[in-house]
Amino acid sequence: MGMLEGKVVAVTGAGRGIGREIALLAAAEGASVVVNDLGASESGEGADTGPAGEVVEIIKSKGGKAIVNGADISDPLGAESIIEDALRAFGKIDSVVNNAGVLRDRIFHKMSRSDWEDSIRVNLNGYYYVSKAAALVFKEQGHGNFVHFTSTSGLIGNFGQANYSAAKMGVVGLSNSIALDMQRFGVTSNCIAPFAWSRLTASIPAQTEAEIERVERLKTMSADKIAPLAVFLASDRSKEVSGQIFCVRKNEIFLFSVPRPVRSMHRAEGWTPDSIADELLPAFKPSFHDLARSSDIFAWDPI
């Protein structure tokens, strides 16, 4: 028996890339899969259920069970239809993998309102809509799990991605709150930050030699390396794992820390702007973190 035998899993953005590999592995591990994909471009334009249909046909050809859902997750009714289709076709829903996403990269001072709103609408609001629809079912049945995709662009930083970074850090907060709120109902929620070559990473601008080298490294990181962790987190064997942030980089898996106080300073008479400058700043400054991009932290070649 596979790790997901008898389970029903919904994967958003499952027509291509990481989502496709998760859907295929989930089916291989015994799950019935709702393959959601709007089929839009990396910027969120257009619609084509063809890629999702291809994934479903592959699953069925190997004896598995899967259906296509072509909804836009940023539409609340579309998001709800993913869960409704799972219930209609398979009678239940056990796991949601929030993977769909768009990129609207712009350096911040050139970022338009639509660049900002489109990214938040899909990369954060869409995750909320799908999660909320599933949460109502999970609560009643007393079990369920969420696997949300975040990004090191938010966890660490990157150029030209203020909108994407904000959304992906929002996903971390969403996941943690779900984990806290729904723990009593047997529901878990975790995040994965992936390194993998996909349509989205292919759109990353590379102009300097260092940026070109980074893109070349990304090309060696295939999407299938991400799927095993997602499938594990969607299984019953992960029931003691919740509120965590993982990262997958080829054959490496990382666990990220979360913000916690690192220094404190008390002044009985309270603080003034001058005392902050004269006393607190010198005490705190050694603990300040440097500005960094994801590539600065993950600077070595993966094996």
TrEMBL record:
A family per Pfam: adh_short
Oxidoreductase as UniProt keyword: yes
Please state every residue range assigned to the domain named Ketoreductase. 7-203
Enumerate the GO terms in the molecular function aspect: 3-oxoacyl-[acyl-carrier-protein] reductase (NADPH) activity
Q: What is its EC number?
A: 1.1.1.100
Could you list this entry's UniProt keywords, alphabetically sorted: Oxidoreductase
**Database matches in InterPro entries:** KR_dom, NAD(P)-bd_dom_sf, Peroxisomal_Beta-Oxidation, Sc_DH/Rdtase_CS, SDR_fam
* Family of this protein: Belongs to the short-chain dehydrogenases/reductases (SDR) family.
Q: Tell me which PANTHER family the record gives.
A: BLL2957 PROTEIN, DEHYDROGENASES, SHORT CHAIN
Query: Could you tell me what this protein is called?
Result: 3-oxoacyl-(Acyl-carrier-protein) reductase
Q: Which organism is it from?
A: Sphingobium chlorophenolicum L-1
